[in-house]
Write a structure and sequence with these properties.
Helix content: 10-25%
Number of strands: 9
Largest sheet: 5 strands, mixed
Order of helices and strands: EHEEEEEHEEE
Distance between the termini: 24 Å
Structural class: alpha+beta
Length: 126
């Protein structure tokens, strides 16, 4: 078995698509739009083949950034410490919040944690 894809609700579908294409070299499919359900989505494919579905539907909004149960972050392996350092610096210089790192965690990962444009956490790791 393997995870086929993960999905996330977003407010700015086009902005989030551009973010993941720009910083993570994702390729997007053609936008799916179900007018009856007022639903739109893109599948973003990473170079490894992993896919992220970003979805927007009328009436669904982000309410809080407080800690809660559910998915906590997405971890993206960049292949090296240098790549983690470089992308963290690029995202920070472009105005995206860096939550922590780059650093070695207690469980031995080299990582940093940044926010995407809508405040979702992305763990950048080797």
């Amino acid at each position: 078995m393997k995870i086929e894809h993960v999905a996330i609700w977003v407010n700015d579908l086009e902005g989030m698509k551009e973010f993941y294409e720009t910083y993570f070299n994702c390729r997007s499919n053609t936008k799916y739009h179900n007018r009856e359900k007022k639903f739109e989505s893109y599948f973003l494919t990473f170079e490894s083949g992993a896919r992220l579905e970003i979805m927007r539907k009328e009436g669904i909004h982000q309410h809080t950034k407080e800690e809660k149960t559910g998915w906590a972050h997405i971890a993206i392996s960049l292949g090296s410490k240098e790549a983690v350092n470089q992308l963290t610096a690029k995202l920070k210089s472009d105005g995206y919040p860096t939550i922590n790192g780059p650093r070695v965690t207690g469980d031995g990962y080299y990582e940093s944690v940044v926010e995407d444009p809508e405040g979702n956490l992305i763990e950048l790791t080797v």
